[in-house]
Amino acid sequence: MQIPVTMKAMMLEQQKHPLVIKELPVPSPSDQQVLVKVIACGVCRTDLHILDGELLNPKLPLIIGHEIVGIVAGKGSGVSTLKEGDIIGIPWLAHTCGTCKFCLQGKENLCDSPLFTGYTIDGGYAQFTVAYEQFCFLLNKKYANASGAPLLCAGLIGYRSYNLIGKSAQNIGIYGFGAAAHLVTQLAIFQEKKIYAFTRDKDIKAQQFALQLGAVWAGDSSKPAPVKLDAAIIFAPVGSLIPKALMDIDKGGIVVCGGIHMSDIPTFPYDILWQERSIRSVANLTRKDGEDFLKLALQANIKTQTKLFHLHEANEALKQLREGKLNGAAVLLMPT
Ligand SMILES: [Zn+2]
Ligand SMILES: [Zn+2]
Fold it and tell me: Is 240 exposed, middle or buried (0-12, 13-18, 19+ CB in 10 A)?
């Protein structure tokens, strides 16, 4: 593949400022990295949290984006399995130390010195990027295009959240019906679970979207659940949904918070937590999550609903995500 000298990228120069388009040198892979020509990159709520300064200390200037589908265009001398032309997915977890207590316990998502794509190293809002070979996923041809991008964070975090509610949960509430919810709903229905979708109040479009995907009920977040739920997954970054979800779940139920950032949680009476209800958060992903989920996505024939934007429209895509105007996931297409 002919590699150009420069590439276009949407750059974050300063938090709380819009991205700016730049012409930058194409990066060179280190020994363990591949050079990747980006086909498409998904737009995730985490990108908004970085932009808005809710996640601290990003690399600056920074190319954000961590739902990358791309084609291997070059590689470092230590790369052993990937080869030029392979189509791969690059997720949020970019690298882990392999030696801290969490890595040694198989909890690399909690690594003490991790790198994150599009946060502590450059990501995919660009025509090229580099990634550590060992943290990339080979993609099946079904997902080797823009439709695969949302699987790489929305899908993975959705899957990790879904796993944490336990296999016995039948009636599952999902709060915030965006990119992650639309994927986890399909997986849950494939496994014969019932999904109750809670959206922003009066967001009829999102409620219809959830019903189309097979949710048994969809309604406003401020309304009580129509049945006692076994578990709740909160994807919306809204702390007040935690006590609400606690009131919706049955004894022994769990509330899983899938986001990396949330507004503060209001105080609530102990009574709604009692009876062995629990609350927990989900952080990052392990490579095993990725491998397991990408297999399951094929089995369940998960279809991603995407709204496509050109790279230079990244600020508009982020704006629509912020305003809740997307059904499914925004994905940026790279100029060829
Ligand atoms: Zn580690
Ligand atoms: Zn993400």
Answer: middle
pTM (predicted TM-score): 0.94
Residue type present at position 94:
A
- Give the angle 47-154-95 at the CA atoms, nearest 5°: 70
- Starting from the CA of residue 101, give the closest ligand: 1
Cα–Cα dist 149/100, whole Å: 30
Give the tens place of pLDDT for each residue, 272-300: 999 999 999 999 999 999 999 999 999 99
- Please state, in angstroms and rounded to a whole number, the distance separating the CA atoms of residues 331 and 306: 6
Q: Which residues make beta-bridge pairs with 137?
A: 89
Tell me the ligand closest to 99's alpha carbon.
1
Name residues with Cβ closer than 5 Å to ligand 2, which is an ion: 44, 46, 153
CA 2 to ligand 2 centroid distance, Å: 31
Please tell me the distance between residue 93's alpha carbon and the centre of ligand 2 in angstroms: 10
